[in-house]
């Protein structure tokens, strides 16, 4: 690298600040931050460009469940300390249907595996703090971000910040900019294949300062629709209700939300549910989405930029972390061993895991939700499948193995 940053004139008579780095990362969500951190620990330089403010990114309440593989990767990134002290280890989940709760024991069924409940907000803060301490380069509130040149050996990211033009020249671009980002949208339609399923329902999610009704997460299938009873701590509940995709949030008063949650749970749980003022309330549409391939010349798509799962299987953040795992190892091989095998396999390796997580998320979503068009026959077979999953070892083990996370391929 001959220089890190310098000001140069542009053809239209203005000036642009040019920055040089090895990896230009678009998006400071969990994917972008974790990638930057893992690369930095291996001596690989990156710059992260994010369109939102840091407070906005850190405050976005989303995922809650981390697989063992994600915990291991956060440890590898040396940001796992608070997760181990404040996170809640879970040894299973409960499925509730026909008014009764059934435990699925992950430890027994998977040979000792568990998951951790630790909010995405906290993962993001831990990563940001570690990156700060190491003097990482993260540009927040960048405007008009574009990616280009990825078919050449000089890809670049352009953006504006405080009215000034900037260009990052890099070896590779990592598109970590989520479903609505610019990276995937910059690829010509004929080079990318998109697979999508949109579900006829959404999740209304709330955060409330009330103790969880149970130590384990409860996934509830009721005649009135799905509900999920999760948590962020021993005093904070994170709860979700299936609702119509076009429903206005104002149609859901606090009172209606608490009543509906109680209706969808077994009697013992409903009696323990203690209404409290809501700290957050939002509606999330549900979709399954995959973009193939995940590499375009010298640009890689990572995390939600390439795939979305319905949140029922708690796979989104975990899949994003798996992509980061594969890409960071591939880049280390490239820079340290001049070996591009893993970079060349990146798309195929990721997609193999992604499609299995897609299948599982689609399956659990189909098993747990009320589909508006479902016939009485379909409703009966749904309940029969729930009975199979909760009363046979084969059924329960398949759910448990997928939920705790399948093994990595590479
Ligand atoms: P993110 O988190 O969307 O971050 C992308 C970042 O890119 C920025 N960006 C841009 N930056 C620059 N220029 C542009 N043009 C840009 N366009 C966008 C955005 O501002 C943002 O900061 O993607 P990433 O990093 O790949 O992370 C993915 C995860 O956030 C996501 O998969 C999970 O939150 C999904 N998810 C869950 N995953 C789990 O593993 N376990 C769960 O329990 C779980 N629960 C959930 C969830 C997602 C939910 N919602 C709201 C979608 C529950 C919910 C309700
Ligand atoms: C959450 O706690 O936010 C959560 C947990 C499990 C899911 C989805 C979301 O499947």
Commentary on this structure:
The protein has 410 residues and is an alpha/beta fold. Helices cover 36% and strands 30% of the residues. It has helices at residues 30-41, 54-59, 68-76, 81-86, 106-110, 120-133, 254-263, 267-272, 316-337, 341-368, 376-391, 393-404; strands at residues 5-9, 15-20, 23-26, 46-49, 65-66, 88-90, 92-97, 100-105, 115-117, 137-139, 143-148, 156-161, 164-169, 172-175, 193-208, 217-222, 225-231, 237-243, 278-292, 295-296, 299-301, 307-308. It has an eight-stranded mixed β-sheet with strand order 8-7-16-17-18-15-19-22. A six-stranded mixed β-sheet has the order 10-4-3-14-21-20, covered by helices on one side. The protein is globular and about 70 Å long. 42% of the residues are buried. The structure holds 8-demethyl-8-dimethylamino-flavin-adenine-dinucleotide and P-hydroxybenzoic acid. Residues 26-32, 49-52, 57, 62-65, 120, 142, 145, 176-178, 180-182, 203, 205, 284, 303-304, 311, 314-318, 320 line the site of 8-demethyl-8-dimethylamino-flavin-adenine-dinucleotide.
Bound molecules: 8-demethyl-8-dimethylamino-flavin-adenine-dinucleotide, P-hydroxybenzoic acid
Structural class by sheet pairing and helices: alpha/beta
Strands of the largest sheet, in order across it?
Answer: 8-7-16-17-18-15-19-22
Low-confidence stretches: none
Distance from N terminus to C terminus (CA atoms, Å) equals: 31 Å
Given the structure, what is the number of helices?
12
Shape: globular
Mean pLDDT: 96
Q: Secondary-structure blueprint of this entry?
A:
Blueprint: E1 5-9, E2 15-20, E3 23-26, H1 30-41, E4 46-49, H2 54-59, E5 65-66, H3 68-76, H4 81-86, E6 88-90, E7 92-97, E8 100-105, H5 106-110, E9 115-117, H6 120-133, E10 137-139, E11 143-148, E12 156-161, E13 164-169, E14 172-175, E15 193-208, E16 217-222, E17 225-231, E18 237-243, H7 254-263, H8 267-272, E19 278-292, E20 295-296, E21 299-301, E22 307-308, H9 316-337, H10 341-368, H11 376-391, H12 393-404
Parallel strand pairs: 2-13, 3-4, 3-14, 4-10, 7-16, 14-21
Antiparallel strand pairs: 1-2, 5-9, 6-9, 7-8, 11-12, 12-13, 15-18, 15-19, 16-17, 17-18, 19-22, 20-21
The protein binds 8-demethyl-8-dimethylamino-flavin-adenine-dinucleotide and P-hydroxybenzoic acid.
Residues 64-65, 217, 228, 230, 238, 311-312, 314 line the site of P-hydroxybenzoic acid (PHB).
